[in-house]
Structure formats: C-alpha cells, structure tokens
Amino acid sequence: MPDIGKRVQNIRRLRMWTQARLAKEAGVSPTTLSAIETGKIGRPHFGTIGKLARALDVAPEELLDLREAGEQQGPAPLSVGWARESGNGEFESALEGASLKSLYSLSRGLDVEQERLQRLYGEFPEASEQGRFIKRQIREVAGRLGSVKASAMIRRNQNEAKRTDEHATGSESSNQSTNPTRATKPLDSWGGPHQWTNSR
Q: Fewest CB within a 10 Å sphere: which of 54, 56, 63, 85?
C-alpha cells in the first residue's frame, strides 16, 4: 500500500502538475512538498495534508496511509483515488459489499474525474505523449465508472425487491390481525349450516 508521499506524487502526476505547481496551488513550500513525496517527512501535519488535498481536489483521507486509517477508523471509504489504484479483483469485491450510498458517491466522483480528464485532454495535441497518456486515463476511469453504475443498479433493484417483500409480509400479518377467523356454525353433511333442533 503506497504511503502518503507516494499517493501525493501519484495524484500530482495524474494532474500533469510539477512539484512547483502543486506547492504553489497548495500554499506550501517546495522543500516541504519534496520532503513529503520522498518520505523524509513521513507524517505531515494534518493542516498540510488538508492544503494538499484541496489543491488536488481530493478528500484528505485519500492522502492518508490507508493501513493507519483502517486501523483507526475501520474500512476505508470508496474513493476516486482508491478506484484508480486498486486491482480489478479488489475493486470488484469492494463494490459487491458497498452500500448504495457509497456507490452513488463514487459514481459522482468518477464522473467529475472523467470530465476533468477530458478537459485536460483538450489542452494537448492528440498525437502528443501527454495526450495519449491522458486518453488512457480516460478509458480506465470510464471502465471503472461503468462497473460502479452497474453495481449501483443491481443494488438498487435488490433493495427495492427486499422492500416489496417486506411490505407484502407486513400486509399479510396486518390482515390476519385485523380479520381474525370467525367462529362458524357446524356444517351438516351437504355443506350447509347445521340446523339445530331440540330433540324430545
């Protein structure tokens, strides 16, 4: 699992930014940023992490060491950074266990990321190395986004089916409680009500 310096570096490179550009956008010194990316500063101040996250347009949790976050806060939430870095098996397994709310959130994040990459792609000549690199990133994000949307559709259908079943079960229970079986007269041999007679 990459440490915070590696994660900052990966996201910075995805945005095609130099260290100097990120340092300027985040309002931190280039020396500090370089020390974070090389691991000389292994545990940056949370305020610095927040500045870098805002400049890179990601949640601070995406920059934190996921092993530490997992030990302290439980499973890491689905995020765009995680979706782009995880292997196919890990990615699909996480989607299967994710809530519908998490899937919707990740879908929105990937939509935004895809739009950002498309805008960035327009800034470079199509045949350039940068243009080809960004085009590959767009394809990867589009593939992940398709998987997330499919998982969200399946989860939504499952939830609706479950609610329908629960409603039907609840209605049956309600009908039984409000309409108790009435006592009936005994039936004679031909199925009609038995006529009681007094025998003398």
A: 54
